[in-house]
């Protein structure tokens, strides 16, 4: 069983006790990011805390989906590159075999010419 971390954090002026399997450092980093984003959005003085929370969630979800899209795109490109490498390796192997065959043919012709 994973060891759980219990971390006390402050987000947007409120204290929370969080428990998770992630490290204390990781939990603090996540909470710092949420707090920072909420404070950025709170620069608009007419927004109440509930709206700030919802807008923060929307902004962070947007960032998540954009990052996921980029990850998926890069992962697809990586798979395509791996497939291309596999094809190129097969082509190299075929060319090496052809080279070996041609060398043997050249040597055979040379032996026949020497006779």
What pattern of helices and strands is seen along the backbone?
Answer: EEHH
Spatial separation of the terminal alpha carbons:
79 Å
Note poorly predicted spans: none
- Sheet with the most strands: spatial strand order: 1-2
Q: Please indicate the count of domains.
A: 2
Secondary-structure class: alpha+beta
Query: How many β-strands, per DSSP?
Result: 2
Work out the strand percent: 5-15%
Shape: elongated
Oligomer: single chain
Q: Mind sketching the topology for me?
A:
Elements: E1 5-11, E2 14-20, H1 24-41, H2 49-114
Antiparallel strand pairs: 1-2
Give a structural overview.
The protein has 115 residues and is of the alpha+beta class. The protein has two domains: 1-43; 46-115. Helices cover 73% and strands 12% of the residues. It contains two helices and two strands; from the N terminus they run ββαα. The protein has helices at residues 24-41, 49-114, and strands at residues 5-11, 14-20. A two-stranded antiparallel sheet has the order 1-2. Helix 1 (24-41) packs across helix 2 (49-114). The termini are far apart.
């Amino acid at each position: 069983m994973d060891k759980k971390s219990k971390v006390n954090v402050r987000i947007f002026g409120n204290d929370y006790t969080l428990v998770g399997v992630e490290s204390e450092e990781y939990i603090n980093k996540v909470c710092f990011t949420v707090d920072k984003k909420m404070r950025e959005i709170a620069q608009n003085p007419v927004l109440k805390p509930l709206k700030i929370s919802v807008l923060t969630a929307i902004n962070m979800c947007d960032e998540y989906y954009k990052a996921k899209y980029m990850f998926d795109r890069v992962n697809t490109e990586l798979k395509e590159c791996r497939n291309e490498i596999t094809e190129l390796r097969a082509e190299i192997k075929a060319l090496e075999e052809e080279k070996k065959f041609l060398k043997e043919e050249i040597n055979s012709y040379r032996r026949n010419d020497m006779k």
